[in-house]
Amino acid sequence: MTLERIDCLIFGYRRIEIPEADLAGATTRLLLKGIPIIINGKGSFTVRERDAEAMRSALSGVEYTESERLGLLGKIKSFRHKIALALGLIASLMIIILSSSIVWDVRIEGNERLTDAAIRRELEECGFSVGTSWIRADKSEIEARVLSDSADIGWININRRGTVAYVKVIEKEIIDAPKEDAELGYSNIVATADCIIEEITVTKGQAAVKVGDVVRAGDVLILGALPESSGGGLCSADGTVRGRVSDTVSVEVSREYEKKINAKTHINEIELNFFGFDLNIFKNYGNLPEDCDIIEEIRTFSLFGRCALPLSLSVTKGENYEIEITEYTDSQLVSVALSRLREKTHGLLSGCDLLRIRTDGEFTDSGYISRNYLTYIRDVGVKVPLSSE
Fold first, then answer.
1. One-character DSSP codes across 283-329
2. Which of 64, 229, 312, 347 fits as disulfide partner to 18, beta carbons 3.0 to 4.6 Å?
3. Percent share of the chain, pLDDT over 70
4. What 3-state class would DSSP assign to 176?
5. What is the pLDDT of residue 181?
6. How far apart are CA 370 and CA 338, in angstroms?
7. 49-95 pLDDT per residue, tens
8. Which pLDDT score is estimated for 281?
9. C-alpha–C-alpha distance, residues 108 and 167, integer Å
10. Environment class of residue 129 by beta-carbon count within 10 Å: exposed (0-12), middle (13-18) or buried (19+)?
11. pLDDT for 301-320, tens place per residue?
């Protein structure tokens, strides 16, 4: 291999295509200019990259075609834009991955008295705010710290949708501070239901009943009067009384019910959330029909099914429908009634100790009635001010 060929391969060369009739004249011009060439035959020769400019000058007026830069350096330079594109793509993916692991926006839901800013301050004091890393943030620990430190938040839950933190809160109920007896006045504790006394604890006043007594709603359980040993006199009775209560819960379900038919769904709005900014893509400004359900779907996007990207798509749909009056079968009617009865009973027994339950039901002309006969223990005392008359 000649030095010219080695030089061409390493530092690059151009391949020149020229009509065979003009080849002899062209090569003569180049040789007279001292430009070395390699004849390839069939109207083609090779010239070094470093001599390319001089070659163009020498062949002025001659028709020829010139290739791109070939050889090792030519290949490297031809790949530069591809390498830059690949590096740019890698850098973009790294930026997306890193940015998607950061909290870009905190949205508060469920608050009424507390402002969003106040809740965000509570979260910041517990180490959670815009800019916090999702990877390092322990949501359970943050929620526990907020509940421990806040006097106004009774429940909190942090959910992640893309790069946005949706914080749902339930505020504590405002309980008035207990007033002094002079402000409250004197009171008894009376029964709220017919029951059998199971437990009584008196912290102020005197017990008017004992365990095992049968009382009626409105009977005095704790008298607002101090014992003679404590100096006597009236007071605001205080204490707890738990009684055994018998109760009946019933639910009636009509055999006829309304059924949605011919439901048609159409898109009302499409909104893109990118790095915490909302971009409205589509919105239907027409009036919604009266019989229309609104359905909202939020879709988040992930990279390879792992890391959530800092964007989400919110699609709001409206579902139009017609109403058809139809009837439950007997088995469906009983099933619906029992389901509603369970829900109603569960709400009644919150905070109670269930002792016994019996369920029955009957068909009626219009539907079905289901009943629960309950025996349970609950608080049965409530304060009632003494009459000033």
1. E--SPPPSSEEEEEEEEEEEETTTEEEEEEEEEEEEEEEEEEEEE--
2. 64
3. 84
4. coil
5. 44
6. 7
7. 888 888 888 888 888 888 887 776 656 665 555 666 667 677 777 76
8. 80
9. 5
10. middle
11. 776 666 667 778 888 888 88
Residue with the larger pLDDT of the pair 298 and 196: 196
- Mean pLDDT across 232-243: 90
Residues contacting 53, CB < 8 A, separation 6+: none
**pTM of the model as a whole:** 0.45
Closest CA to 309 of 345, 338, 273, 351: 273
Residues whose CB falls within 8 Å of the CB of residue 173, separated by 6 or more in sequence, listed in order: 154
Tell me, what's the pLDDT at 183?
47
Q: What is the pLDDT of residue 76?
A: 60
Sheet of 195-204: strands edge to edge? 214-215, 195-204, 238-254, 367-379, 353-363
Q: What is the 3-state secondary structure (H, E, C) of 209-220?
A: CCCCCEECCCCE
Dist. CA 132–CA 137, nearest whole Å: 7
φ/ψ of 96, rounded to 5, equals -65, -45
The predicted structure's pLDDT at residue 239: 93
CA distance 289 to 320: 7
Which residues are CB-contacts of 364 (< 8 A; sequence separation ≥ 6)?
Answer: 252
Burial of 187 (0-12, 13-18, 19+ CB in 10 A): buried
Q: What is the distance between the alpha carbons of residues 4 and 12, in angstroms, rounded to a whole number?
A: 11
137 contacts: CB under 8 Å, gap ≥ 6: 103, 127, 128
What the chain holds in terms of domains, given with CATH numbers, is: 3-77 (3.30.70.790), 79-175 (3.10.20.310), 251-255+328-376 (no CATH), 258-325 (no CATH)
Alpha carbon 92 to its chain's center: 26
Coil, strand or helix at 242: strand
Residue 179 has pLDDT above 60, yes or no: no
